Amino acid sequence: MVNSSNLNKYSTSRLSNGQTVPIAGFGTYLIPAEKVTKLVYDALAAGYRHIDTAIAYKNQREVAQGVSKFLKDHLNVQRSDIWFTTKIAEKNQGYENTRKAVQQISDETKEFIDYVDLILVHSPKTSTKERLGTYEALQEYVLNPDNETLNVRSIGVSNYGVAHLEELFHWENLKVKPVINQLELHPWLPRVELRNYMEEHNILTEAYSPLTRGRKSDDPELLELSQKYNLSPAEILLKWSYLQGFIVLVKTENPKRIKENLDILPDYRSDSGDESGKLELNSEILRVLNKPDSKIVLTWGGVDPTLYKDE
Ligand SMILES: NC(=O)c1ccc[n+]([C@@H]2O[C@H](COP(=O)([O-])OP(=O)(O)OC[C@H]3O[C@@H](n4cnc5c(N)ncnc54)[C@H](OP(=O)(O)O)[C@@H]3O)[C@@H](O)[C@H]2O)c1
């Protein structure tokens, strides 16, 4: 646990395949397609350079459109400055289905963003055959970037537990390592053991629902800290998440909050010597939020997908 860090709005993390991913991500789950193009544009205008969508969100075309519009209006920003993630849904898993799903991603996004930075296996809640079939198909795209369908730069997983990662690492056809595991993470679900395992295997941790989707915003301990230190619950939770070293995905449909949530991170570049607004939380806040044994799952119907066992 660190009290302060030199992270800023422009910070990136290096993946095991050498690529770099901006740590501040904008999530788009449940944002209706008709609203999302403008919100993605607003997020990029605020300074986010990392956008997260999924086939299951039914908005990836409009998300990609937002990126494209922004790039057209901001010639100083390149496509390569922006990280675009999408995900293969459970119903799209298995080798053949995944090939169809990647065709769908291509049909919906290629005209706007040319390539995708990352495709995640959205969930392990299928079967060994489907998980590995999906992975096999995704590997083929990554290993053949000039394929006719879609240039896919990297593969990751989401909601995978140690058993699902072990299955992948013991698979004889593994050629492209997963670079990221995207997980529900917040003080009530810190997933200490899983994160240690991922660190050993050089898989970066990406946090979703860092604000608990609002489900802990009236938690008495959090409210007390909020009042005592004059920090909003969202500010405390986002700072906590960045200080853990996560890549953080936060969602809002409120343009004012888009900016506020990014302003948690300082504007200065770490080499400038300017330390005003340094990312930090005091030791009392960190102590109160340090709950290494807590296992409260607030998404996925309260049932932890990382513990899923095949039927
Ligand atoms: N891989 C997966 O299985 C998975 C699962 C869940 C999420 N995700 C990804 O992670 C992203 C973020 O997670 P999430 O959307 O579940 O939850 P979240 O970001 O923790 O919470 C979003 C909720 O917080 C509210 N909010 C945002 N900023 C706020 C602020 N400054 N103050 C008070 N309330 C605020 C939003 O309301 P308003 O919109 O009204 O501001 C919304 O209700 C998703 O959008 C998605 O891209 C992935």
From TrEMBL:
It comes from Candida orthopsilosis (strain 90-125). The lineage of its organism: Eukaryota, Fungi, Dikarya, Ascomycota, Saccharomycotina. The record marks K87 as: Lowers pKa of active site Tyr. It is an enzyme of class 1 (oxidoreductase). GO terms for biological process: ketone metabolic process. SUPFAM superfamilies: NAD(P)-linked oxidoreductase. InterPro entries: AKR, Aldo/ket_reductase_CS, NAD(P)_OxRdtase_dom_sf, NADP_OxRdtase_dom. The active site is at Y57 (proton donor). This is 2-dehydropantolactone reductase.
